[in-house]
Amino acid sequence: MAVMRTITARWYTQGRIEDIRVVVVHDMEAPESATTAENVARYFATTGTKASAHVCVDSDSRVRCVADAHTAWAAPGANADGLQLEIAGYARQTREQWLDRFSRAALEQAAIQTAEWCAKYGLPARRLTRAQLRAGHKGITSHADVSAVYRRSDHTDPGPNFPWAYFLERVQHHLGGAQANQEETVSTPMWPGRILRLTSPLMEGKDVRRWQRRMRARGWRIAVDGLYGRESAKVAQAFQAEKRLRVTGEVGRDDWIAAWEEPVT
């Protein structure tokens, strides 16, 4: 098994504002070679381009660029709650090319890393649909799907021919098969006991941040800053109107529960 080495990226955010929810699979748009992970990691360490990933892999190595506890800059919309995994290769590759000798070895390194993350952070070893990604479910996704759901980038990696079934089978193998076809549900957290509303000074707290995070996961454009300001009130009003709740711009018990239990439309 390859020994993990570290080449620290230049650009990333210290800490996280959200809990880890997804593994985001990327390709490097770089040649297949036994030094590609190291080369791309060195690029992240020195580039003026504000980009990074948590781990880079090729056929025989895994290179750590950003600690899991910090936020890599790789997939806007899924940076705050994502673990970013770069695999040697190109989005234009055919399925046959993704399953050649080199790529199988690289996919094995990627599967080992993904399995470790799934086990450590309680992530189901399954590829999320775009609807599931938007709704805040946990699992594995692609940069392409993050781009499609959040519309904050135009990347389409790892491409349409990426062998998802093979990759997920290898992840399952390294997990011991315990998570095969597991369905994950988003449980409704207990209502915090106070109504979230516009106040002066602004109401703030973990409950505000949790509700904001949930609304953003549902697809609403909202900052997750823990402050209940005008933007939060407008999102609450729009959500209440959509779900035929009493439109107040405040988040009471029924509104809180609806944020988790109403279907995403």
Q: What would your notes on this structure say?
A:
It catalyses: Hydrolyzes the link between N-acetylmuramoyl residues and L-amino acid residues in certain cell-wall glycopeptides. InterPro entries: Amidase/PGRP_sf (IPR036505), Amidase_domain (IPR002502), NAMLAA_amidase_2 (IPR051206), Peptidoglycan-bd-like (IPR002477), PGBD-like_sf (IPR036365), PGBDSf (IPR036366). Belongs to the N-acetylmuramoyl-L-alanine amidase 2 family. It comes from Planobispora siamensis. Its EC number is 3.5.1.28. The protein is α/β, with parallel strands linked by helices. The protein folds into two domains: 171 residues, Lysozyme-like, CATH 3.40.80; 59 residues, PGBD-like superfamily/PGBD (Muramoyl-pentapeptide Carboxypeptidase, domain 1, Orthogonal Bundle), CATH 1.10.101.10. It has nine helices and ten strands. Strands 1-5-4-7-3-8 form a six-stranded mixed beta sheet. Strand 4 and strand 5 form a beta hairpin. Helix 3 packs across helix 6. The protein is elongated, with a radius of gyration of 20 Å. The N and C termini lie far apart (45 Å). About 2% of the residues have low confidence.
Per DSSP E runs of 2 or more residues, the count of β-strands stands at 10
Strand content: 5-15%
**How many structural domains can be distinguished in the coordinates?**
2
Return the average pLDDT rounded to an integer. 92
CATH C-level class of the largest domain is Alpha Beta
The CATH homologous superfamily of the largest domain corresponds to Peptidoglycan recognition protein-like
| End-to-end CA span | 45 Å
CATH architectural category of the largest domain:
3-Layer(aba) Sandwich
CATH topology name of the largest domain, in short, is Lysozyme-like
As an assembly, this protein is single chain
Relative helix content: 25-40%
Rg estimate, integer Å = 20 Å
Query: What characteristic shape results from the CA principal axes?
Result: elongated
Order of helices and strands: EEEHEEEEHHHEHHEHEHH
Structural class assignment: alpha/beta
**Largest sheet composition:** 6 strands, mixed
Counted by DSSP, the helix tally is 9
Main-sheet strand order equals: 1-5-4-7-3-8
Low-confidence residue ranges: 180-185
Organism: Planobispora siamensis
EC number: 3.5.1.28
Pfam families: Amidase_2, PG_binding_1
Catalytic activity: Hydrolyzes the link between N-acetylmuramoyl residues and L-amino acid residues in certain cell-wall glycopeptides
